[in-house]
Amino acid sequence: MSHLVDDIKREFSKSENALVKIILTNTAVFLVLLLAKIILTLSQASGIYAWVLQQLQLPADLSVLAVKPWTIITYFFTHEDIFHILFNMLFLYWFGRLIDEYLGAKRVVALYMLGGVTGGLVYIVIYNLLPYFQNHIQGSGMLGASAAAFSVAVGASTLLPNYTFNLIFLGPIRIKFIALFYIILSLAQTIGPNAGGNLAHLGGALIGFIFIKMLQNGTDLGRPIYAAMDFYSNLFKKKPTMKVTYRQKQVHRTPNVYAETSASPSVEAPNQGEIDHILDKIGKSGYESLTKEEKQKLFKASQQK
């Protein structure tokens, strides 16, 4: 057990490991809730579990949301059903690793957070504005990272539409078709018991598309999230020790190592020869054969067009 805890701590200590951290956080919340449900149900205190769940799920009722504003964040880290979290985390991992390789770990977090928040806002708006949903607003709530995962998936599909996944029984399929399939599936389920949730998925998908298109045009919607991440990191970072040299009567501080290593090294814009070499390599061996630096150079080249 101690080895498992040490492994988790080691994963969280890595600065460029955002995707794994998101998946581990979702998994930890799911396991804690599952254990709590078992214990409280056997103790005939299931009402306590229901209360805990209400503190995490996103309510559709604005009067309830007003006293639980944190749920716009907590809902997309919370799952109850094993197949729900399994699908979301697999979906997130498959597409999230592409964003991580091409755009860096912080962009994965930005797409996940923006997709989750946007999906939540879409859910709230439709339940309060559309007559079909207004009749069901009382007691309605949403859980799950589907909108956030859709944002990452559509973001990756917008960035690399012709990248292929090898699916069992189906063979290689371009990721733009996989994302399109799930978007159509969500559209088909917009009338039904989970209609609000499926519309929230589409909200996450839309922000994923907009995020990448604006990034390619030089505008990064994730800047406020990066600032919040840096603030959070600095809040829990140990202050540098002070070394005093009395002979020189000067105070020296140790360098801020975290600031130097937290950001990935900048990649210079490639020249035409480098671009041709990368494209030849893709033609011979596919996207998977590129190094992380080559992928980032390819993305920089696409921004210059």
* Total strand segments: 6
The proportion of residues in beta strands is 5-15%
How many helical elements? 15
Query: In this structure, how is the largest beta sheet organized?
Result: 2 strands, antiparallel
- Coarse structural class: mainly alpha
Quote the CATH topology of the largest domain: Rhomboid-like fold
For the largest beta sheet, what order do the strands appear in spatially? 1-2
| CATH class categorisation of the largest domain | Mainly Alpha
Kindly report the name of the CATH homologous superfamily of the largest domain: Rhomboid-like
N- to C-terminal separation?
Answer: 52 Å
Question: Can you offer a commentary on this structure?
Answer:
The chain has helices spanning 2-13, 18-42, 46-54, 62-65, 71-74, 82-103, 105-129, 131-134, 146-159, 175-188, 195-216, 223-235, 257-261, 272-285, 292-304; strands at 58-59, 141-142, 164-167, 171-174, 242-245, 250-253. It has 305 residues and is mostly helical. The protein has three domains: 2-221, Up-down Bundle (Rhomboid-like fold); 228-261, no CATH class; 272-304. The strands form three sheets. It has a two-stranded antiparallel sheet with strand order 1-2. β3 (164-167) and β4 form a beta hairpin. The radius of gyration is 22 Å and the shape is globular. The model is unreliable at 251-265 (pLDDT under 50).
